[in-house]
């Protein structure tokens, strides 16, 4: 955040606009992601992706304990995306990329996003269609090769 604020003319303005109100909204989502969203999504990544990769099994009790928090947070993001294509404006910003990052393997992670239609639409029909996202896609097994 400090780099973004000390070099206001650096980088892609569409990703991080110069307008201070737009930046404040983006900064709010960046903070929310790091404080709340990432930790919740990470539980699903560890339990459903990392543990099986290492020969273990997901701990259903851990996943069940996190489910309520995930749905609470997903509901916040889902509400924000009601009637909106992107989180903080009329085009994708760093807020969209940062918020989507912990869901990069949402199918493999078994993230319960189907209860959140705006979130699901934003992720699948928006984020995953971006060329920058497609170039960095990660699939089951942490491979960059699209499954057939």
Summarize the model shown.
This protein is mainly α and 148 residues long. The protein has seven helices and no strands.
Q: How would you describe what is shown here?
A:
- This protein is mostly helical and about 150 residues long.
- It has a single domain, classed as Glutathione S-transferase Yfyf (Class Pi), Chain A, domain 2.
How do the helices and strands line up, and which of them pair or pack?
Blueprint: H1 2-6, H2 20-53, H3 60-80, H4 94-100, H5 106-109, H6 117-126, H7 131-134
Separation, N- and C-terminal Cα atoms: 39 Å
The string of secondary-structure elements, in order, is HHHHHHH
The total number of structural domains is 1
Number of helices: 7
Shape: globular
CATH topology: Glutathione S-transferase Yfyf (Class Pi), Chain A, domain 2
- Largest sheet, if any? none
* Percentage of residues in strands: under 5%
Strand tally = 0
Helix content: 55-70%
